[in-house]
Design a protein that fits this description.
four-stranded antiparallel sheet; elongated
Length: 492
C-alpha cells in the first residue's frame, strides 16, 4: 500500500520530473506574491522552515509580553541576523552575489513552507499573518531610504492605488493638514492616495488620516500602513486557499511529518550549552557545587532538586530530566555517578549499582546503543510524559495547579502582585515559555544596569539549560562590573 502511494506521488509533475526554475531576487523586500518553483532538498526544506520559525516565535513572544514595536525590533533583530539575514543592496559590492541570492531564496522558500504548516486552522493562520506582518515591518524600517522608496514605487504600481489629483488636494489641503498634523506647505509637497478606510484601521484609530465619503486620504509617508494592510489581507486569503489544497500532500510521507511538527507553532531547537557562561571552574560542575547553583536553575529543575533532597529519590522520568540537565551544565559521568549515589542515601551500594548505575552511564553514551543523549528542551518537557501524583518531573507552568504554581513562585522570592498576575495570564494563555521568561526577569531584576532600556533578557527561554547559562552569565558580568568599578574608585 505504501509503495503504491509513493509511486502515485512521484508521478506528479513536481515530484516525478525535474523542475529547475530559478528566480531572481533584485530587491531585499518581498511581498511573496509569486510562489517558488525550483527544487530544494528535504534538508533545506526543514532547516529553512525551522530558522524562520525561530524568528516568528520570538516575535510572537514579544507580542505576548506586550512589547512595543521598538522593543520588539531590539529583541528580534539578533535572531533575524542569526537565522534569517537579508543583506541590503547597498552592501552588495562587499557581499558575494551568491550569498545575497542564497539569503533571499531562503527567505522566499521558508515563507511558503510555513504557509503549508500554518494554514491548517483559523488560529494558526491568524498567528502566522500577524507575525509575518511584524517581520515585514521590521525589515522595511531597517532598509535605507532609497530601498524604501523603490519598494513603495513598485508596490504602488502593482496595487494600482488611486492618487489624489492636484486640484482635489488643493481643495482639501487645510483638512488634510489638520487630519495629518502636517503643515500646509508639507501637504502641498506630499503625494496622497485615496483608499477605502477599512484598509488602514491603525491610521483611522489614531486619527492620522482624513476620512471623506468612505475614503481615507493617506500621505506617502504613511504608505507602509497601506502596504501592510494589503500584505496581511492577501496572505490571509492565500492561506485559506492553501488549506483547501493541503490534503493533496497527504500521500507524501516525506513532507507531512515535517509540516505536522512545524504547525505546533513553537520550536525548541537543540540547545548547545555555553560553558564559558558557567560560574564553575573550567565549566565543570561537581556534586559539591550543585546546591550552590540551584539559584540559577529554572523552576522545573529547582523542583526536581528539592524533591531529590527531600525524598532522597526521584522516579525514572525525573531522573532523566534532571540528570540530562546536570550533564548539560557540565557534570561528567563520574561526577554524576557520585552525585546520584550520595543523593540516594537510603539505599545500599549494591541496589544502586544494580538498578541505577547502568541508566546513568547510558545517558552519557557509555552503555547500550552508545547514543549521547541531549538535555530535554522546554517543548520535550511540556509535550511528553505528563507527571503522575508521585512524580516531580514536567513543566510547573504546564503541569502544576495554579495554587501550587503561585506557592512555588513565592518560594523563589517572587511576591510582586503584578508579576504574579502576568505569569498567571501567560499560563492561562498556554504561553508557558513566556511565563518562564517573565520569572527569569523578575528574579534577576537586581542585575539590570542603571540606565538599561527594556527587559534584562533579550530572548525567550526555550530550554532549561539556556535559563541556567543566561543566569550565570548575568551574575558573572555583574561581578566583573563591580570589580572594575571598585578598581576605578581606588585609582581615583
Amino acid at each position: 500500500m505504501f509503495r503504491a502511494q509513493k509511486r502515485r506521488t512521484l508521478e506528479r509533475t513536481n515530484f516525478g520530473k525535474q523542475v529547475i526554475r530559478e528566480q531572481d531576487y533584485p530587491d531585499r523586500l518581498n511581498l511573496y506574491s509569486v510562489p517558488p518553483l525550483a527544487e530544494i532538498t528535504l534538508d533545506q526544506f526543514e532547516e529553512w522552515a525551522l530558522d524562520r520559525l525561530r524568528v516568528l516565535c520570538e516575535i510572537e513572544s514579544c507580542l505576548f509580553r506586550n512589547r512595543n514595536l521598538k522593543a520588539t525590533e531590539q529583541a528580534v533583530k539578533p535572531v533575524i541576523d542569526k537565522y534569517l539575514p537579508l543583506t541590503s543592496n547597498s552592501t552588495k559590492s562587499q557581499t558575494k552575489s551568491s550569498q545575497l541570492d542564497y539569503e533571499r531564496k531562503k527567505d522566499h522558500y521558508s515563507h511558503y513552507i510555513l504557509r503549508l504548516a500554518f494554514c491548517r486552522s483559523d488560529e494558526l493562520r491568524h498567528r502566522f499573518v500577524k507575525a509575518e506582518s511584524i517581520l515585514f515591518r521590521i525589515r522595511y524600517l531597517s532598509c535605507d531610504l532609497a530601498e524604501q522608496q523603490a519598494f513603495l514605487l513598485k508596490a504602488n504600481n502593482n496595487q494600482n492605488w488611486t492618487s489624489v489629483a492636484d486640484n482635489e488636494k488643493e481643495q482639501l489641503k487645510e483638512l488634510l493638514a489638520a487630519a495629518t498634523s502636517m503643515s500646509i506647505a508639507a501637504v502641498e509637497q506630499e503625494p496622497f492616495f485615496a483608499v477605502d478606510f477599512e484598509k488602514v484601521p491603525d491610521l483611522v484609530e489614531n486619527r492620522r488620516v482624513l476620512l471623506r465619503y468612505g475614503q481615507a486620504y493617506i500621505p506617502a509617508s504613511q504608505q507602509l500602513t497601506l502596504v501592510l494592510s494589503d500584505f496581511a489581507e492577501r496572505l490571509q486569503k492565500e492561506l485559506e486557499i492553501t488549506a483547501r489544497a493541503l490534503p493533496r500532500l497527504d500521500e507524501d510521507d516525506r513532507l507531512v511529518p515535517i509540516l505536522n511538527h512545524l504547525s505546533r507553532g513553537f520550536v525548541a531547537p537543540e540547545y548547545v550549552s555555553d560553558s564559558s557562561a558557567n560560574l564553575a571552574e573550567n565549566g565543570r560542575v561537581t556534586p559539591e557545587q550543585v546546591d550552590r547553583l540551584v539559584s540559577h536553575f529554572p523552576l522545573c529543575m529547582k523542583s526536581l532538586h528539592d524533591g531529590l533532597r527531600q525524598e532522597k529519590h526521584l522516579r525514572y522520568h525525573g531522573r532523566q530530566q534532571y540528570g540530562l540537565f546536570l550533564k548539560g551544565i557540565g557534570m561528567t559521568v563520574d561526577d554524576a555517578l557520585l552525585f546520584w549515589r550520595q543523593s540516594f542515601s537510603k539505599i545500599s551500594d549494591e541496589k544502586f549499582n544494580k538498578e541505577y548505575r547502568y541508566n546513568i552511564r547510558h545517558n552519557y553514551g557509555l552503555e547500550g546503543n552508545r547514543r549521547n543523549y541531549k538535555p530535554f528542551s522546554c517543548m520535550q518537557i511540556i509535550s511528553s510524559n505528563a507527571p503522575g501524583p508521585l512524580d516531580r518531573h514536567g513543566c510547573p507552568y504546564r503541569h502544576y495547579s495554579m495554587e501550587n504554581l503561585m506557592s512555588a513562585l513565592g518560594g523563589m522570592g517572587i511576591h510582586d502582585k503584578n508579576t504574579l498576575k502576568m505569569v498567571r495570564e501567560d499560563v492561562e494563555a498556554k504561553q508557558y515559555h513566556v511565563a518562564c521568561t517573565r520569572v527569569f526577569e523578575a528574579t534577576h531584576s537586581q542585575y539590570a544596569k542603571p540606565n538599561q532600556q527594556g527587559p534584562i533578557l533579550q530572548e525567550t527561554i526555550t530550554h532549561p539549560n539556556l535559563y541556567f547559562d543566561r543566569s550565570t552569565q548575568i551574575v558573572r558580568n555583574h561581578a566583573k562590573a563591580e570589580i572594575s568599578k571598585e578598581e576605578i574608585e581606588l585609582k581615583a
